[in-house]
Amino acid sequence: IEEVYTLLELDTDKHSYITIKDELVHELAASELRINAFQERVTTLNQVAEYLLASVENKQEMKMNLSKLNITDKIGIDVVEKELNELGIQIELE
């Protein structure tokens, strides 16, 4: 917080303040885009996992739901779990 106050107290005519602000805004926007992409991917994988777990009851419905997500019906729960774990690791690294 002290660093933010120091930046705010700088003269706005100085290029260093503007450059720092622009870089921070750019980094925040890039991080937000990555987080949104991860969240969308996790949501899709969770839907696939639900369809796969429900496939025992109704294979035809599962195939239809997977085709809506543009995913082949040959995917397995192990693939979904692996992808979710990889996304979790990527999110932790961010």
Describe this structure in words.
- The chain is mainly alpha-helical and 94 residues long.
- The chain has one domain (2-93).
- It has four helices and no strands.
- It has helices at residues 2-9, 15-54, 59-68, 77-93.
- α2 packs antiparallel against α3 (59-68) and α2 (15-54) packs antiparallel against α4.
- The longest helix has 40 residues, at 15-54.
- The radius of gyration is 22 Å and the shape is rod-shaped.
- It starts with a helix and ends with a helix.
- 4% of the residues are buried.
- The mean pLDDT is 73.
Question: Helices, strands, pairings?
Answer:
Elements: H1 2-9, H2 15-54, H3 59-68, H4 77-93
Domain Group II intron-interrupted relaxase LtrB C-terminal: 2-91
Pfam families: Relaxase_C
Protein name: Relaxase
Order of helices and strands: HHHH
Count of distinct strands:
0
Question: What's the N-to-C terminus distance?
Answer: 21 Å
The number of distinct structural domains comes to 1
Beta fraction:
under 5%
The number of helical runs is: 4
Give a short account of the largest sheet: none
Shape: rod-shaped
- Category from helices, strands and their pairing: mainly alpha
Query: What proportion of the residues is helical, as a percent range?
Result: over 70%
Report the average pLDDT across residues. 73
Q: If you compute it from the alpha carbons, what radius of gyration comes out, rounded to the nearest whole angstrom?
A: 22 Å
| Uncertain runs | none
